[in-house]
Write a structure and sequence with these properties.
alpha/beta; 27% strand; single chain; Transcription Regulator spoIIAA; 5 helices; 39% helix; six-stranded mixed beta sheet
Amino acid sequence: MRIKYKSCRNCLLEMKIADGILYVYYKAGLKLTLEISKEIVQERLEFLNGEVYPMIVFYEDSVSMDKASRDFFASDEGMQGITAAAFIKTTAFSRMLVGFILGMHSLKIDARAFTDLNEAVKWLKSVVLKFDKSDRRDQKMTV
């Protein structure tokens, strides 16, 4: 198993790639604004170095984001480098937040919320099988 790991410069999140999946861990207490969200996507693109991956996102209940951030993350620009997304939710508030985001935005990638990491990994691997190599080559990334 190859693992690539980076703790970002801004200490807002940590990222690692393991078994072909990008894992993103948001720091507790993070308040996402549009400016911070754009910085996070830029760091993700630099970390991915032109590759695309399915992603699992972990976040604490104390992570919050404004409407502009939610809209940005749901946009083509905010989804660059991502083929599918699984959100790990552990509390009632996080389940409500993820449900709201997924329900309010029409994402161009497959996205689901999970309470179990193993189920999320299993689902992402099934989605990756549908994402053939020609689609992967056609996805454009900017850094």
